[in-house]
Structures are given as structure tokens and as C-alpha cells.
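Lab meeting prep.
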Amino acid sequence: MEREALKVLGLDVGESRIGVAVGDISGIVVSPLDAIHRSTFQEDFSAIAHLVEYYGIGSIVVGLPISLNGRIERQGKLVRGFIRSLTKESTVPVHFQDERFSTIEAERLLREAGHQPSRDKGLLDSASAAVILRAYLNSQAIH
């Protein structure tokens, strides 16, 4: 297996920011990175492409907001469009992961670490990306 395939980029796509995390396929190490402040899709993609190159990413996982009843509502549709565009532009495979409860889990983890999630939304977004990425990696380890 090539070295690049060992690293995965996790994204939590919001309207203002994209939370970012990087991990290895073992799921042992998943680390939040600085969030990307949203601009145009091309600028967002350029920032993501830079991270793919810099970290030697083999695939990308994007959190897909699915409602508790299993429906994809407004935000989910926006993210699904983002995923389609990213898939067309990306040099690595793009996957999605149900992100239900990721923000709640990220808030809990940040509080346990002594942070105030309400004070740093970028940190919360990237912590959510780490939760999403860990969930994806855990689901892949089962298969």
C-alpha cells in the first residue's frame, strides 16, 4: 500500500467554515486542523487541494448532515452538492459519512479538554470533522 493511501482528510462543511481533521487509516491518530473560512468553491477547493498535497492524503471523508428521521434536508442537500463538486475536482477519492450527533460529541470532547466550544467556532468545526473522520474509519475497520 502506498504511503499516501494511509492518510485520510475529514471535512465538516458548513456555510461559514469547513472543519478539517487528518487521520491515518488505522484510526489511532485523528487530529483536528485549522478550519477553512469559506469563500468561493474554487478557493475552498484550492485550500483542500493544498491539504491533500501537504499531508499526502489518500482519500477525503465529508460529513453529510442527515436528519434524525433519515432525510436529507436543506443543509444536507447543500453538502451533497459540495461533495459532487469536490469529487469532480479532487485527485483522491471522496466519501461521505453520516454526521448525526458529531457536533454534540465534539462539544463534549472539547469541554472535557478544558475548551469553551462557543468561543471558537472554528475549533468546534474541526473537532466535529475529527469525530466524523473517526466514525468513518471505525466503520471501515469493521468491513
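Slide two material, second protein:
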Amino acid sequence: IGVIILVILAGFGVRYCHQQHSAQSTKPRVSQAAKKPSKNKKKAPAKQAKPTDPAAAKYEIKGMRPLNNNTWKHPSMYRAYPDVNAHPGMWIRVSTARQRVYFIDRGHTIYEMYCSTGQDHGTPIGTFHIQQERGENFFNAASGEGANYWTSFKNHGEFLFHSVPVNQNGRYMVKEAEDLGKPPKSHGSVRLAIPDARWIYTYVPYNTKVVI
């Protein structure tokens, strides 16, 4: 009897060990390589630094509309345009680096606009003044572009504040207009949103100082 019991127990032990081995063999194996983080991950491209103009940065104020593809259709700020009669000392600062126009009185910005200045430093740098020449529209056959609501600040009709460009049919050139406030795109003049250009044409007085 003792021999029979030993044989039974031995057989049970063999089956138990086999079951344990089978259960372990069904578990998925994770390789050591999979556990280690990959060293070949691509690094995110570094963000390009935005152009700066420290002298003009101090003039930036809150209340600008978001810069997007429809910016050219609306005033640059949510606030109303200033009453120029209440600011007789107002002058204009144009930043070609930040693509902004600031209207300043007594050291404070009273309005700010998105703009697009000349490619390849085509906008003249210096101190100028609003001239007598201004008009509702023009078209330049040589460049194939025109604009609305223009106001001259240099060379009596050569360098202007004006709207985003129009084609020979007077229709706004949308692809050009959508770049307002982004990299310089003009031929030298200062492009503006339609309402902004209209306000300058209508209200900004002759001889107002312009610093670029």
C-alpha cells in the first residue's frame, strides 16, 4: 500500500509541475530592448525666433484683434479709433520688424494697427510727415497692383499708407491680403487693413510725423 501511495503522489507532482510550466510559457515575453526608451526619437524642430524691435515693443497695447486670414477686413483693434482732435500731438511709429503701426501721443499708444511693409527692406527708414497727396484708389500697371484709401508720407505719392492690394478690376487680392501683419510683402508702401487705411485717409492730418 505504501508503494502505491508513493507512486500516486509522484504522478501528481509531475502533472503539477507540467501545469505550472505550461501556464508560465503562455505569458507574453517583453524583450529588454522594448523596455528601454528609444534613443532614436527625432527632436522637435526648434522654433524660429520672431523678429524684434525693442524700441517699438514698448508701444504695444492690449485689445488687438486675433491675427488671422480675415484680419485685413476689420479694424486692427476692438476699441474705437481715436479722435485726432483730442490728440493734437499724435505721431506715427512704423515697425518693419514687428509689422505694426503705432499712433502715439504723450508717450502712450492710443491705437495700434497690423501692417505689411516692403520686401527686402523696401520701405524707407527715417522720419517723414504725412503729405498733402491722398486719394480713394489707384492702380499701378507696372506692378499689376493697386490699393484703396492711400495717404502719402514720402515723395508725394511714391510711398504711402494704403489698404491691402487690389487687382486691375479693383478686387482685393486675397492671398496677398491674408499676409497682413506677417512677413513684409509690399513694394515699399505700408499696407493696412481696409478700415485702418480708410481711417488714416479720412482723419489723420497733414504734417503728422511718421517715424519708421
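Talking points for slide two:
Confidence is low (pLDDT under 50) at residues 1-38, 41-49.
The first strand starts at residue 91 and ends at 95.
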